[in-house]
Amino acid sequence: MRLLGVIAMLSLAAGAALGLRHHGESEQGVAGIIARLRHIKIAPRRALPAGVGSPATALSARGPIIGTNDGVGWGRAAARTIVRGHITWNRVAVGSPPNTLAGSLSDGFKVLLIVANVADGTPLSQINPSSWGAEVVSELKASRGVGLAEAGNESYLKADVANPVQYGRMYLDAVEDMKAARIHIPLLFNMTGDIPHDTWADPQGWSEDDHEGGWLREAVAGVPGLAAAILANGVSIHPYGALGENSHDDLGTGSAAAEESIANTVLGSIPPFYVTEIGYALGRCGAVAGACSERQQATKLQAAYEVFLADPHIYGIWWYQSHDDPTGNFGFMSNSNRVRPAFKVLSAIASAAGQ
Asked: Is the pTM of this model over 0.85?
């Protein structure tokens, strides 16, 4: 659907109310980005199937969830600014302070919780699926107030080896354990596209979606019952990369549609998709996931979100992230809580999406 022409007016007022100040960025330049949002398209989303979601995950009539990663731990004033900017969801990992579930709920966020995340250096071959499923249930029972859960983070990268069948076993065990425990929170399946035959650092060839391979096809082929479980819950993707790019059905804004297509082929339908990380880092001028200036970061954010908002299969988008951290200067705020142009643009998008 088309957005009403009030977006620019609301966004400029919000920026003034939040005391927006840009170092080296003109208000007029950022206002131009905001003004272009009045013509942005938000595709209508179909109602989620019975049993998928909860009152906390209900979509607005206009568009998908708009959230952030690591929105808590920077002080109550920062959290209040984010929530008042209509960015009302926070992505949290169990056991990762200071960005906690309790802090998120206290500060007014709804929460997407990463559960039972395997350490990055641990191969999935060392994980017992039954024990892992029980861990998911235990963490969710101890985490009241969660709206969505994610079955680990980038599970296709653990120990630099993609092991789709093992992850499929783990995921299905967790879904079945959750059903037995009467936990009805959607559990998102980590999805990617093409995967290496050996390690990510030294692929030695690829298992590709286009050649009857890839992460999802291998997982579903090796784990009976997995397809139905994914369809009933949804998937998470991290389409970092260039605008319009699709690299290995994984990187770039164009990869979202490619992954939806392969899901339709492999699963027989397209489940709800959630972009749980997307961002552009300041200081990486010329890099596909980088930005040369704060204004360019805001411009790239707008362009990426235009793609996702127009996609009726994407039900949530979480910016990576609220502040800078050792992974890069991705923040829509500085670490002194100064809001950047990207915040103003994201706030306008969130307001337009009905949050």
From this structure: yes
Confidence (pLDDT) at 56? 46
Class assignment of domain 7-352?
alpha beta
d(CA 259, CA 271): 11
Residue with tokens 């951290």: 325
Alpha carbons 120 and 117: distance in angstroms, whole number: 9
HSE of 136 in the Cβ direction (CA atoms, 13 Å)?
35
Instruction: Give the tokens for residue 151.
Output: 């079955």
pLDDT in the model for residue 28: 54
Rounded to 10 degrees, the C-alpha dihedral 174/314/55/155 comes to 20
Question: Which residues sit opposite 111 in a β-bridge?
Answer: 90
Is pLDDT above 70 for 49? no
196 contact partners, CB below 8 Å, separation of at least 6:
162, 202, 203, 204, 205, 206, 207
Higher pLDDT, 11 or 260: 260
Show Cβ contacts of residue 54 under 8 Å, excluding neighbours closer than 6 positions. 147, 184, 185
156 vs 5: CA distance, rounded Å: 42
Residue extents of the structural domains in the chain: 7-352
Token pair recorded at residue 306: 């235009």
User: Where do we find the tokens 């065990």?
Assistant: 173
Distance of alpha carbon 180 from alpha carbon 337, whole angstroms: 44
Between 304 and 28, the more confident residue is 304
Task: Please state, as a whole number, how many other Cβ atoms lie within 10 Å of the Cβ of residue 36.
Answer: 16
**Omega of the bond prior to 321 within 30 degrees of 0, cis?**
yes
Q: How far is CA 129 from CA 113, 170, 284, in A?
A: 20, 4, 39
